Amino acid sequence: MTSGDIPHKSIKASSEKDGHPARHGRLGGDSYWCSKEEGTSYIQIHLPRKYKITAVGIHFKSKYNIRVIMLKAQVLNQWIDFHQQTPPYSGGVERIAPRRPCIAQSLRIRVIKKEPISICLRAEVYGCEIPRGCIMQGSAVFVKHSSGYQKGFVRDIYPSINLLEVFSSGQYGVPRADVILDEKPSAHELANGTLVLGKDVNSPGLIREGRLVQRGNVLCTIKTNDKEWDSSLDDVRVVKESEFCPS
Q: Residue 246: pLDDT band by 50, 70, 90 thresholds?
């Protein structure tokens, strides 16, 4: 936000006081975003693309009577909590780092107060490129069902029991072995005979599993139960169990 790479229109808030709009909530600026008097306030940042969110920085104008600070990420059309904590206050920039980072393009810093008051703050978002080959909150995945696979997004992970919560047509608790990362494979991963997923070009919406027979520049031929079918190369994913990303 400090760099100016995020345009003003991508910074929104639950409310604004005159002269202190959401766009003033950039860390390093000479002003602040200020909410109206309300019990819960948030500043929302829409990033240019998805990133692995590792922390946020918050600078409050003064000390406020705050109950908790929550970090929320948008997954599909829902906002999920991926971190909350009692707010520190040092008078400087407070760095809030979630125990488990999350993949997101839209992020909310939500401040829950002990009473309806106005708050003023500046914020920054810290993150990095999305890691390849591992699953974390916000990862795009395919979930195995009896009739095939369904696209979804990871809401939460439970590494100790190898389970995930996934948003697809609903919310599911599924074993890690039944979740395939939605990640385009490199060319060397697509050798003939590799177990893959693809979208059958003759059955729109159907995601199937099979062995790769031939990889072309546009289409791939896949065999399932001795029957061959075609999928766009862009829709092919390698079937393999992915590890959870390290925190």
A: confident
